[in-house]
Fold this protein.
Amino acid sequence: MIPEIGHIFLIITFVATIMQILFWIYNIKSFDGFTVHILKRSALMNFLFILSSFFILTYSFIISDFSLLLVSNNSHSLKPLIYKISGVWGNHEGSLLLWVLILSTFTFLISIKNSSINSKLLSSIIGVQTIILCLFLAFILFTSNPFERVQVLPLDGRGLNPLLQDPGLALHPPMLYIGYVGLSVSFSFAVGALITGQINKEWAQQMMPWITIAWSALTIGIALGSWWAYYELGWGGWWFWDPVENASFMPWLIATALLHSVRVLEKKLVLINWIILLSILAFSFSLLGTFIVRSGLLTSVHAFASDPSRGVFILIILAIAIGGPLILYALKSSSFKEHKVQFNLMSKESAILMNNLFLTTATATVLIGTLYPLFLDAFNGNKISIGPAYYNATFAPIMAPVVFLMAIAPLLNWNQTKNKNLSKKLIFLIVATFFGMICLYMIEQSSLFAVICGSLSIWLFSGVVTDIISKIKESKIKFNKLRQFFFFISKINLGIHFAHIGVAVFLAGVTGEQFFKTEYSGRKNIGDVFNVGNQSLEFKKIEMLDGPNYRSQTATFNLLKDGKIINKLKPEKRFYPTEKSQTTEAAILTGFLGDTYLVLGDGNKEIGWSIRVYFNPLVSWIWGGACLMALGGLVSILQNRKSRKIIN
Amino acid sequence: MFRNIKIFLFCLVLSISQNNLLADINSPHKDFIIKKTREISQNIKCLVCQNQSIDDSNSEIAKDLKVLIKDKLQDGISDEEIYNFLRDRYGDSILLKPPLKTNTILLWFLPFIILAFGSFFVIRFLKSNYK
């Protein structure tokens, strides 16, 4: 009975959204405060109904109600509670419900937060959000109903794919979806501007925090996915240029471009058309990502269900949600009046312009790499595969200038004002990087690419440091009191520094992992001692252990240094009887300077076990860097809010 | 759906059982051949896996191919010829780095064409706004 209530809630919301859309379109010309009031209320209602429906589904998962098809296919009574809950979005139907829940949450938040938005724009924003909501509710109700019942009640569930039973992955989809769906807000802002025909600096300021939230969440979501691949898949890599990874990476790149160019619009009315186009594109890429992952067009762990009817339906949604705004854009974009302002070639504006040029080209490159094999196959049946080599040759050289500019751009001034000490700062930067380069070159076996990649990291790091030092000097603050320190912190744009340092840390991690990784593989038996790099490992024992819903073959290795045990590594092979599948759990010893990564392979007492050991220098910096970037986003939101409060 | 996951897991399980394929080389250039084999393996797709090179994978076919590459290297056959041999046998899709042919010209050059176009617009914009 309870699941039916959840289903009915969804149907009610679907019908209500249709009525709200009609109401909005009917009032689009003759507009008054009453319309906004109604739309705000309906945003709240949609949110509450979908939230209840989501809770009901979660409840069914927690109590293991196997009369629901979704629960019996994706859960099991013996599963730990956290994976029962994460099982809600560990499948196609549930993850879509999460998608619409986040969408309605965002819509509701805009309706209550931004009372300062002019009401005509606000009603357009809510209207556009409601259209997206309606499309996705239709998708859920007609093709992927999460509340479908089974014909025959099973004894127990089929369980969740063991690879997905993991804390990192429990959080990965919600974060990613907050990112994807958060971009719908800037999309609605853009479409709203096209409908109302009005755009101003406030528009950019009000949109900014929403893009930043989405961008930060997307960063974390992607990083979690990559981290999971690293420790769970057991071959030590962290990014595979898999189409599904690309699907989340493209919106991130566009959102990054948008995040920067909106800052120009906050200052003066230029690049209006470009920013509107970017906002539309960013969400379009999110939808495309959803389409790629959900339609089964590309197969991977993410393609829970490949059902062609769903693919067609998503294609229709895609056509409406992207095509509509683009047509509107073509019709109305010429009506915006841009200010004719002049700025110096060495200014923040032109740096951001270059940033946008390279980031959008990089996005296009990833898009080409992802879809080209599909199109070629459809076009003349030729099959090709695109691996990391392609992206190293195309994506990397296009992104290198972005990092190069990233160090200089914060040193430049807005507008045409000349920066007095620019050449001094640049000389410092170049000298610092040069020394770093030499150090890198001295390391054994460092290739040209290793030096380039590492130098970029050093370059960026020195850039941020230079910027902060020069700001301290310019502000002429004496740090004799803690209060003055905080005053200074509140003055500078801390978020940018965090995010840019994050990129530098990330690049350092990439350099370490890509170019200085060492690897050992061989067959070893109990009692063997062997050297890996400058450490030695002792194969101590192997035993069978029982987990909550799996059986595990656990080996114990002692990490020795000068004959003393300094650590223990316990790689596992797990067998999940319910799902009838096996996973390998690598033993990872995470350190600041690098990870020791040990994987247990097949074997027995007679011939020994095959094992692989990697030492991955600086690998954890990759995700640390991503966290710093996301943190930068959050800091800048908080700082902006504070400064706005002061102004008011 | 389950088929895909099964294939995936199959590769996963196999990929762990790495053994010393390359241990039995009797050549003065042993280190060079091991290095070269791995280098080539990284550019060869494991056809039964998903988006994995044979270097990462340890499925039967990946093992066979690695031995084959090693043998060919020992016989003094060049990289180019090994790639060509594999291509003739399994088609272009075995190469993770697609070769530059008429059907991949766009793949390789489109990013840079887009960059050129973009630069043109940016320069035009900067010129009209340049002081």
About this structure: The first strand of chain A starts at residue 518 and ends at 524. Chain A touches chain B through 68 residues (CB under 8 Å). Residues 226 and 288 of chain A are 20 Å apart (CA to CA).
